[in-house]
Structures are given as structure tokens and as C-alpha cells.
Write a structure and sequence with these properties.
The structure is a single chain. The chain has 394 residues and is an alpha+beta fold. Among the domains are: 99 residues, 2-Layer Sandwich (Beta-Lactamase); 93 residues, no CATH class. It is built from nine helices and ten strands. It has a five-stranded antiparallel β-sheet with strand order 2-1-5-4-3, with helices on both faces. It has a five-stranded antiparallel β-sheet with strand order 7-6-10-9-8. A hairpin with a 5-residue loop joins strand 8 and strand 9. The relative contact order is 0.13. It holds the Pfam family HAMP.
């Protein structure tokens, strides 16, 4: 008779069930690890870039404060602006000051009308600078003037330069022996001082990764950074840049179509020196910035897949171990049904319950065989009695 029983074997079902359960658990654990570690790692990288930006702005502010204080003190010296020293002595003093700090591109004294009276190396002596912002600002107590081009001075300092040099100006009024304002003492600070500070902070990172530093003026124009960006205005979305936060990090899309991880910090000035409103950005292509994190994520997923396969193999072994004795009992039952045997053999390697099942089936078969024998014996006795009755009747 054809066996009407169809369906998936118990070993296959157990294997699929256990393997599926192991896969789900593994993926859940991988997801938890991803949330715990990769997100934290991404945050740590962002904070690292923000910290670099903070260090850069702090050094810029402190360095600018030193120059600010220096120019203010020199403007207040009667020996420089008064009648005690000759013009040659004042000029030599300015030149010595310039030699001590090479980023002083120009140092000079003007009168109240803006005419340059004395300057280091005689640059611009006799010229009138009344129209320059730093001169007018100094007379209304604005002593720090943001980055600007100086075409005339650039030609004097570097005649071969194709582009004008850029300077930050520091200027204070100076007084004569009677305490009256006699003119303005001004200093043009070459922007290279800021570039050196920026490189000193980010150089350790620059040697290992393609990280870029941008310094933006108060109008968000790039004054220090990759050459293609110099002089361009950077438009940043409101991820804290325009929202009032002084420092932080964000994923920001730039004009080149790429998304960067950006650490930023806004200049706040230092001590008596006011802020120029600069913003320092430390950026890297977000794919490169998070390359290590992505590698870790792939490792987690690969490890999870390996663990899932291991559990699947273990599930298959366990399913076969559980189903093998059941399959043996099922095969014995099939042979009994087909008349090939009348006994269930000893089942080995199974669990206690399977052993009990085998013993119970053997007991049941024994009882069935005993009942069958009794019924046969009863039939023989009945047939004997019928035979005797027939003989008597004859």
C-alpha cells in the first residue's frame, strides 16, 4: 500500500528552525554592536575634528593677542612717538621689531592726516594712508581690521607676485609729549602667521589622512585653505554653524558635490584682543573619515554571518542527532507493517524519551503478538470442539 504521509522531515524542520533562530539572534547582536560601537566611533572622529578646529582658533586668537598687545604697548611708548628719539632711531627700532617677528610685513607711524612719517625700511614713507580702513578705525578705537588685500604694499614687497598679499591690520593712536594724539602707529600682519599656526595644529593628522583646514573670514570667505577655494564664499547649512554654537561637527555638503565630515570652531578673541569673527573648519570626505568605521561594520557583519553559518551547522548536527533514533523507529514500524519483521530493534544514541518510546512500542508489539497467539489458540480449540460435535452427529 502506498504511504499517504507526505511533508518535510523532522530533521529538516529542526535544522531550519534552529538555523533561522540563530541567524535572527546574530543579526540582532550585530545591529546592537553597530549602534553601540560604530555610532560612538563616528562621534569620536567628529569630536576629534572639532577639537582640532578649537585648538586652531585658540592658537590664532592667542597669537593675535600677543601682536595686539605688542603694538598697543609700542604705541604707548613716548620714546617711539614722542620727541625723545630721532627719526632714524625710531626707524631702526621698527626694523629691529620687524626682524624679531618676520610676519610684520609693515610697521609705520603716521601723522593725524594719515601721512606716513616713519616706517621700517622706509616703505610707504611720504604716502598718505588716510583712506585705508585701519587708519580711520584706530582713531575711533577699533584697533583690529580684518583680512584685506594691499595692492600697493604687495608690489613693494613682492613685485613679481601675481596676486596681492593679504594682511590683518593692528593700529593704535600714539601721543606726543603733551598727551595729544599725534598720529597712528600701524602694523600689517602677513597672513602667513595664521597659515603656520594652522599647519602646526593639523600637521600630525595631515601626514596620515587627506584632511583639509579652511579658515573663513567673518563673511565666510575662504582666506586660508585649498587654492581653488581661496577667495570663494562657503555657504554652510544650519548645523550649528549659523545656529549660534561656537564649536562642533557635522556632515556638510560643499559646492563640489561631495559630503564632508566637518569639525568647526568660531573665533572668540582672547583677553583684551577682540575676535575677528573667523571660523576654522577641519574637513575630510565623509567616506574617508569613516573608512575605519565602515571596515569595522563589515567585520561585524562578516563575523555575524560566520556565527550564523556555524549555528546552522550545529543545528543540522543536532537535528540529525535528535531525528536519527526517531527515523530508526519509523523504519522499524514500516518493516513491521510490510511484514518484513515483527520486532523493533534496540535504538541507540537517542534521548531518554525516545528510549521509553522504543520500549513502549516493543511492549505493545509483544502484547499484540501474545494476543494474536491467544486468539489463534482459541480458534484452534474452537475448531476442535466443532470437529468433535460433527463426529457425534454422524
Amino acid at each position: 500500500m502506498k504511504n499517504p504521509i507526505n511533508g518535510t522531515g523532522i530533521s529538516t524542520q529542526l535544522m531550519l528552525l534552529l538555523a533561522g533562530f540563530a541567524l535572527i539572534i546574530t543579526l540582532l547582536l550585530a545591529g546592537v554592536l553597530d549602534n553601540l560601537f560604530t555610532h560612538q566611533a563616528e562621534g569620536d572622529i567628529g569630536h576629534q575634528y572639532a577639537e582640532l578646529a578649537i585648538q586652531t582658533t585658540d592658537k590664532l586668537d592667542r597669537s593675535l593677542f600677543e601682536r595686539y598687545r605688542e603694538v598697543r604697548l609700542l604705541a604707548g611708548r613716548v620714546g617711539l612717538g614722542g620727541l625723545d628719539a630721532s627719526s632714524d632711531e625710531k626707524r631702526r627700532f621698527l626694523e629691529e621689531m620687524q626682524n624679531t617677528y618676520a610676519h610684520y610685513a609693515w610697521l609705520g607711524l603716521t601723522d593725524n592726516e594719515g601721512k606716513v612719517l616713519i616706517s621700517a625700511n622706509r616703505l610707504l614713507e611720504g604716502a598718505n594712508v588716510a583712506a585705508r580702513p585701519w587708519f580711520g578705525n584706530a582713531l575711533i578705537s577699533i584697533h583690529l581690521t580684518d583680512v584685506h588685500d594691499a595692492k600697493l604694499l604687495s608690489k613693494l614687497l613682492k613685485p613679481e607676485a601675481s596676486e596681492p598679499m593679504r594682511f590683518v591690520d593692528i593700529a593704535f593712536p600714539y601721543h606726543d609729549a603733551n598727551g595729544r594724539v599725534a598720529g597712528v602707529f600701524g602694523a600689517h600682519l602677513n597672513l602667513d602667521w595664521a597659515r603656520e599656526i594652522e599647519k602646526s595644529v593639523t600637521l600630525p593628522l595631515l601626514t596620515r589622512k587627506r584632511v583639509e583646514t579652511l579658515v573663513l573670514a567673518s563673511d565666510m570667505t575662504v582666506i586660508i585653505g585649498p587654492k581653488p577655494l581661496l577667495g570663494t564664499r562657503v555657504a554652510l547649512s544650519d548645523h550649528g554653524f549659523a545656529g549660534g554654537a561656537q564649536a562642533g561637527y557635522a556632515a556638510e555638503r560643499f559646492g563640489d558635490g561631495k559630503t564632508y565630515l566637518v569639525g568647526y570652531s568660531k573665533s572668540q578673541g582672547h583677553s583684551a584682543s577682540p575676535s575677528l569673527g573667523w571660523t576654522v573648519l577641519v574637513r575630510q570626505d565623509i567616506g574617508e573619515a569613516y573608512a575605519g568605521v565602515a571596515h569595522f561594520r563589515r567585520q561585524v557583519m562578516a563575523t555575524g554571518a560566520g556565527i550564523a553559518l556555524l549555528f546552522a551547522a550545529l543545528a543540522l548536527w543536532l537535528a540529525k542527532r535528535v531525528s536519527r533514533p526517531l527515523a530508526a523507529i519509523a523504519e522499524s514500524a514500516r518493516r513491521i507493517e510490510s511484514g518484513e519483521t515483527d520486532n523493533i530493534g534496540e535504538v541507540r544514541g537517542g534521548y531518554r524519551e525516545i528510549g521509553i518510546l522504543g520500549a513502549s512500542l516493543r511492549s505493545l508489539i509483544g502484547k499484540l503478538k501474545a494476543n494474536e497467539a491467544s486468539m489463534r489458540q482459541a480458534d484452534r480449540r474452537k475448531e476442535g470442539r466443532i470437529g468433535k460435535t460433527e463426529k457425534i452427529g454422524r
